[in-house]
Amino acid sequence: MANFKRIAIMGGTFDPIHFGHLVAAEAARDSFKLDRVFFVPSGNPPHKKNYPVTDAKHRYLMTNLAVAANPYFEVSPIEIERPGYSYAIDTVTEFHNKYNDVDKLYFITGADAILEILTWKNVEKLTELCCFIAATRPGTNLEELRRFIEELPEKIGKKIHIMEVPALAISSTDIRNRVANHRTIKYLLPETVEQYIMKNGLYQS
Ligand code: ATP
Ligand code: MG
Question: pLDDT at residue 167 above 90?
Answer without folding.
Answer: no
